[in-house]
Write a structure and sequence with these properties.
The protein has 9 helices and no strands. It has helices spanning 11-17, 21-27, 40-46, 51-64, 66-70, 80-113, 119-154, 158-188, 200-232. 75% of the residues lie in helices and 0% in strands. It is mainly alpha-helical. The model has no long low-confidence stretch (mean pLDDT 91). The two termini are 35 Å apart. It has 2 domains: 11-70; 75-232, no CATH class. Helix 6 packs antiparallel against helix 7 and helix 6 packs antiparallel against helix 9. Residues 86-230 form the Hemerythrin-like domain. It comes from Fictibacillus fluitans. It is found in: Cytoplasm. Keywords: Cytoplasm, Iron, Metal-binding.
Length: 233
């Protein structure tokens, strides 16, 4: 089998060529959003993983999904307005729906189990802050940043580009912050493994947190590694 990926390929390129690799990298705690330009070989080494084994997994995953991927939208080749609308429809809508439900679940399990599982105090606190930041983040994108990008696409000027670049730099810093929250939550929850005495709500909350992390990785990947480079180079 001819290898599509080698250790020198940028981590974000792996996910752009094989979107399903995102979950595999996430499971290995390889951040393809914040460290997208890092060669995949270096990212693997930093996690003390067997480079040969992980590279083999990635190449096998690509081959298995090659036909399916041909039918998937290649967002790096789509118009900017279509990409922005997809981010809003697929990812922002998901956050609007799931964040309040997760807040309720995490508050319930915090109230019920914090006496026996004190780490839930930190989980509850971190998620509450993350929820507020995400809600503010997507609102700013929809009402300010995305309209500026779309206006620039219609009438590109140097002043508009400088303005957008400043906002994009701010968004990337916020993405870094969000990524750190996700990393801390994963560590606090032992990779979202519910304890043996957990009720169904407890277990479901951890499943939903894991799903949230996956969606956010894809969401922020589309912005950091596809949308922003398309606009500001």
């Amino acid at each position: 089998m001819k290898s599509v990926f080698d250790p020198t390929v940028e981590t974000r390129e792996v996910v752009m060529k094989c979107p399903r690799a995102g979950d595999l990298l996430k499971n290995y705690r390889i951040d393809y959003v914040r460290n997208g330009s890092q060669p995949i070989g270096e990212a693997i080494k930093e996690q003390n993983l067997n480079s040969g084994d992980v590279m083999n997994e990635l190449n096998i995953l690509y081959e298995k999904n090659k036909d399916h991927q041909r039918g998937m939208t290649k967002w790096e080749k789509q118009k900017v307005n279509a990409l922005i609308q997809y981010i809003i429809d697929a990812h922002h809508s998901y956050l609007y729906m799931v964040l309040p439900k997760l807040q309720d679940m995490i508050t319930n399990i915090f109230n019920k189990y914090v006496g026996t599982h004190p780490e839930l105090s930190h989980v509850h606190y971190l998620f509450s802050i993350l929820k507020i930041e995400l809600e503010q983040h997507i609102l700013i994108e929809e009402e300010l940043i995305f309209p500026k990008i779309l206006a620039y696409e219609k009438k590109p000027t140097l002043n508009a580009l400088i303005d957008i670049k400043e906002f994009v730099d701010d968004l990337k810093r916020e993405h870094e912050h969000i990524g750190q929250f996700l990393k801390d939550l994963r560590e606090l929850t032992n990779d979202y493994k519910a304890p043996e005495d957990a009720c169904d709500t407890y277990r479901l909350a951890y499943v939903k947190l894991d799903e949230l992390e996956s969606d956010l990785f894809q969401h922020l990947h589309l912005e950091n590694n596809v949308l922003f480079p398309r606009v500001i180079g």
